[in-house]
Design goal:
The chain is globular, with a radius of gyration of 13 Å. Helices cover about 0% and strands about 50% of the residues. The chain contains no helices and 10 strands. With about 110 residues, it is mostly beta strands. The termini are far apart.
Length: about 110
């Protein structure tokens, strides 16, 4: 099983980033997928979930209206479009095939700072 996140970076408050997660080693199209994040000095936090057919989507309250999760089953890839970024969004972002984030990649760092 391999999950490879990318797309993070340093962005000013109010900016945008698009994260990607390329998956291999399991049947991506059969799994709900998740984004989780870990801020400095804190535990893992669930951010968003998407079902296999992209019909059931959920967000943590603080990111609702700003983040959009999506997936391309043909490309085995999960995405997270992040807009109106805030300093409190600064974290290491992971994709996972479970809500606890126990199976995840190496993460991609998102830093929101002026």
């Amino acid at each position: 099983v391999q999950l490879v996140e990318s797309g993070g970076g340093l962005v000013q408050p109010g900016g945008s980033l698009r994260l990607s997660c390329k998956v291999s080693g399991f049947t991506f199209s059969r799994y709900w997928m998740y984004w989780v994040r870990q801020a400095p000095g804190k535990g893992l936090e669930w951010v968003s979930s998407i079902d296999t057919g992209s019909t059931r989507i959920f967000y943590e309250d603080s990111v609702k209206g700003r983040f959009t999760i999506s997936r391309d089953n043909a490309k085995n890839t999960l995405y997270l479009e992040m807009n109106s970024l805030k300093p409190e969004d600064t974290a290491l972002y992971y994709c996972s095939n479970n809500a606890l984030g126990t199976v995840r990649g190496q993460g991609t760092q998102v830093t929101v700072s002026s």
